[in-house]
Amino acid sequence: SGPVGVKEFLSDFLPRPLVEKKEEGYCLDYDRPLSIGKVRSFYGNFGVIVKAYAYMMALGGPGLREACELAVLNANYLRHHLQEDYHIAFKRLCKHEFVASGQKQLAENGVSTLDIAKRLMDYGFHPPTVYFPLIVKEALMIEPVETESRERLDEFIAAMREIAREARENPDILHQAPHSTVIKRVDEVRAARQPILRWPGLGKEILKK
């Protein structure tokens, strides 16, 4: 979420309402006949901006700097401890995130990044972003952020090392992961070709009752 800037000749087509500054204050301008209309109902992602602003105000300047330093420290701590078991895309200090890769596991054991991500769920971790950025094959974008403790980071490292060991010794356990969730792997091809875009409980039969 954030501001969108366009050149003046495109301003008539911006989604409405726009926030306008008047002499008496700010107001919403709906009188824009060439507007493409609303692109998001209600308040959109405005709440994200409010939360970010509140977080920054609560921390203050020194606190925000410390949070940034902790995020960078945490990311580099993970990067350092995972480099023996996983390919690290860029061999240098990172900022708040870094890109690992399952290239080694795929080449040596037939275990993909998707397998690794699914297996992480069995160890109690939400999988990181996978297959992005696209310029890195089998990418795992890992971003620990500033709120993770040293203990939690060590737990993640241990889980990733155990998954690397499993890839070498028992790759099938990764191919079939996750094992601890109610729903295993979603049929993404079927979801794309036969999408269900509304909740069936909202049918006319239900509403009549």
TrEMBL record:
Q: Answer yes or no on keyword Transmembrane helix.
A: no
Q: In the record, what lineage is assigned to the organism producing the protein?
A: Bacteria, Bacillati, Bacillota, Clostridia, Eubacteriales
What GO terms in the biological process aspect are recorded for it? glycine decarboxylation via glycine cleavage system
User: Listed GO cellular component terms?
Assistant: cytosol; glycine cleavage complex
Q: What is this protein called?
A: Aminomethyl-transferring glycine dehydrogenase subunit GcvPB
In short, the EC number is 1.4.4.2
Q: Report the enzyme's class at the first EC level.
A: oxidoreductase
Protein keywords = Oxidoreductase, Pyridoxal phosphate
Q: Which GO terms describe its molecular function?
A: glycine binding; glycine dehydrogenase (decarboxylating) activity; pyridoxal phosphate binding
Q: Which residues form the Glycine dehydrogenase C-terminal domain?
A: 67-169
